[in-house]
Amino acid sequence: NNKVDNLRLVPQKLNSRNTKKNRNSKTGTNGVTYRVVNGSAYYAAAWVDENGKQANKYFPVKKYGEELAEFLACEYRLHMIDLLNLKGHGYTDRHGT
User: Fold this and answer.
1) pTM here?
2) 3-state secondary structure string, the chain?
3) Tens of pLDDT, residues 12-27
């Protein structure tokens, strides 16, 4: 619905924090990806930190197992988004849905 009353005026940077999840996402969580590098599989949680730089945390499948590594990466990213929102960084409940 593109009626004027349903739109908000925000910078592109803020608007991009509220994108829907990619339909090709293996994890179903924005900012969490599955990678295999040199034969080692891991899940990576990514977010943009307070300084506008991408930050990452990696969860190796070998160490945690497939399901736990994915779960930890998803939870960690959601936790980081919550911390950023406490400081007013503007992720909405629609982010990743």
Assistant:
1) 0.73
2) CCCHHHCCCCCHHHHHHHCCCCCCCCCCCCCEEEEEECCEEEEEEEEECCCCCEEEEEEEHHHHCHHHHHHHHHHHHHHHHHHHHHCCCCCCCCCCC
3) 666 665 666 666 667 7
